Amino acid sequence: MSTTVQAEPHATPQRTAANEFVSYPHGVPHRVDHDAEAHRLHVESDRHSATWRLDKNAGRLALTWPTSSAPPHAATLAAIETAFALHPDSQTLQLQVPEAMYPSLRHTGIVVDDSEGVPWVPAELFWQQPDLWLPSPKSLPYPQQPISSDGRRHPRRPPKPVGTVYRRHIPWLNATLSFRVLDLEHDLERFSRWMNDPVVAHFWEEQGDLAQHRQRLEATLRHPSALPLIACFDDQPFGYFEVYWAKEDRLGTYYAADDFDRGWHLLIGEAAFRGSPYVAAWLPSISHYLFLDDCRTQRLVIEPRVDNAKMLHNLARCGYAHLKAFDFPHKRAMLGMQLREHFFNERSWIPQPPHPGSTPRPDPRFSR
User: Is residue 17 pLDDT above 60, yes or no?
Assistant: First the structure.
């Protein structure tokens, strides 16, 4: 069984210049040019362009639309994302736009008013807006119906997506990270090569030939609770991620799994993409994708081998707590967990120092 990677109506743009950012509201690339001296953000897509004023005074970040006519909604989202990317230490942004825009922005949780009626964009809420990072976000959560699989009661899961499911520009790499659903015919040979890499094989222990790996991927694609993803930088594949609903997974029997807990496995198959700058991009982003995919997901779990010290260190740097060591039949594992509230409240999409792209947290516990 194979999954066809559908063509995207708007392809990932070419690599940007160092002073440019790319945002993808509604799946459409928006290039944003930043002129720090002029305090200007120029947002441009194939449909429209818009120029904003961006200021930071006394620690307060402000984004201002300079005319009385309303800017396009997508350009507004792109400008806000860029402002937060340029100032990752900012937890809020004051947004000044025509009055007619505020009701819809408040309704979607992009803008909230302070006690004096001043409209602010909290980063904690903004980064929960799926329209910015999911090319095809769900309009509503999938309805709930309890069913049983292999003796486990859990909600019926939605149909699996196809094509690209997440896209995010990474400023410190000047590249776009994306996750797309694995295509069996297109990705099998690459997956098999990765599985036979000694570094990967040490932890996955799934060396084999194409026939074995085809069978393994076919089973994953058929499984209603698992989704195989190929991770890319600027459309160049570098790794494999397997995300799953924890309630139906083997891990769900080792802790009190909730209905919408998600888990994930990974391998980095291309040696050129191993290292701190890349970990700082993909590790927070896979968490971000899973929290955006269903707003009812409150916890993410992962179970690396206890001797994978580097992975455990990186998980801790990106907001995962190490809860307990336990024994699977095939390995001794560490249960790691990330809470939705912690991820967004502590801005875990930005790694803690010393990762590239990191910024100190306002709470000293998160800047040690």
Answer: no
